[in-house]
UniProtKB/TrEMBL annotation:
Membrane topology summary: Multi-pass membrane protein
Record keywords, A-Z: Cell membrane, G-protein coupled receptor, Membrane, Olfaction, Receptor, Sensory transduction, Transducer, Transmembrane, Transmembrane helix
PROSITE patterns: G_PROTEIN_RECEP_F1_1, G_PROTEIN_RECEP_F1_2
Listed transmembrane segments: 26-50, 57-78, 90-119, 140-161, 195-214, 235-260
Compartments where located: Cell membrane; Membrane
Gene3D superfamilies to which the protein is assigned, alphabetical: Rhodopsin 7-helix transmembrane proteins (1.20.1070.10)
Classification via PANTHER family: G_PROTEIN_RECEP_F1_2 DOMAIN-CONTAINING PROTEIN, OLFACTORY RECEPTOR 2A12-LIKE
SUPFAM superfamilies: Family A G protein-coupled receptor-like
UniProt name for this protein: Olfactory receptor
Taxonomic source organism: Huso huso (Beluga)
Length: 275
């Protein structure tokens, strides 16, 4: 019989299972990747902040993405490194909630910031003469604030719905905490949580997808009519970079959602991922 677990209890993380021989190499590999991400994003952030000639919309949006990447990577990778070095993996409920919140906040904010970046590229390429008058510092601050605040409000509501549920389980069948993993700890009805989680996913992914399709369709049409080959090449290169980042990000989110929604399938897959 399941019993309700109090808030001070520890949760077990049953994600990737690795052999003792593979634990230290995986730890070093994850550490190297995290250091590259951390140092790279801190460097980008510092250079943009302290170089006044880089205080332009495109670079300031990159600065926001750097902060976003730091939140996401720091939420998962240090904890994952610690788990590689221990056979028994436990995390407190409070720490699990904080990790899950940061992961979802990172994902939501990144989608909205990438959407703002698409709009910025649209104005820069399709209406370059009015770019400075449209993408003013005030406008950029409003757009970035809206992205961060919108993500924060959506995720706060998501976790308010989850934290209201009583818990009767203590096993998380994944390598890190997420909202879905948290509400699956409850024996109560989680229909509302599932529906709101799907709403956020569809809303954010749908909004970013529609904006990016619309803006890049306009950009493509504009590039086709550009006579200067150098301008056309620069525009296509800039947009291709943004689209690559967006595509990788969206596919990773889709993969994570599938992994978390089909818990039983994923649990056995994780059990089979032994090194």
């Amino acid at each position: 019989m399941n019993t309700t677990i109090d808030d001070s209890s520890m949760l077990s993380l049953e994600g990737f299972i690795v052999s003792p021989e593979a634990a230290h190499p995986l730890f070093l590999l994850t550490l190297a990747v995290y250091l590259v991400i951390f140092i790279g994003n801190v460097t980008v952030f510092s250079v943009i902040v302290f170089q006044k000639n880089l205080h332009e919309p495109m670079y300031l949006l990159l600065c926001n993405m750097s902060v976003c990447d730091l939140i996401g990577s720091t939420a998962i990778m240090p904890r994952l490194m610690a788990d590689f070095l221990t056979e028994v993996r436990y995390i407190s409920y409070a720490a699990c909630v904080v990790q899950a919140f940061c992961v979802h906040f990172y994902g939501s904010a990144a989608q909205l910031i990438l959407t703002v970046m698409a709009y910025d590229r649209y104005i820069a390429i399709c209406d370059p003469l009015r770019y400075n008058s449209i993408m003013t510092t005030s406008t950029l601050v409003k757009l970035c604030s809206l992205a961060w605040a919108g993500a924060f409000v959506l995720i706060i509501i998501l976790f308010a719905l989850t934290l209201r549920l009583p818990r009767c389980r203590s096993r998380i069948g994944h390598a890190y905490c997420s909202n879905a993993a948290l509400f699956l700890l409850s024996c109560a009805d989680t229909t509302v949580n599932n529906m709101y989680g799907i709403f956020i996913t569809v809303f954010l992914s749908g909004l970013s997808f529609l904006v990016i399709v619309w803006t890049y369709s306009k950009i493509l049409i504009t590039c086709l009519y550009k006579r200067q080959s150098s301008s056309k090449s620069k525009a296509i290169h800039t947009c291709a970079t943004h689209l690559t980042v967006y595509s990788i990000f969206e596919f990773s989110i889709l993969f994570s959602i599938i992994m978390l929604r089909f818990q039983n399938f994923v649990f056995y897959r994780h059990k089979g991922l032994q090194c």
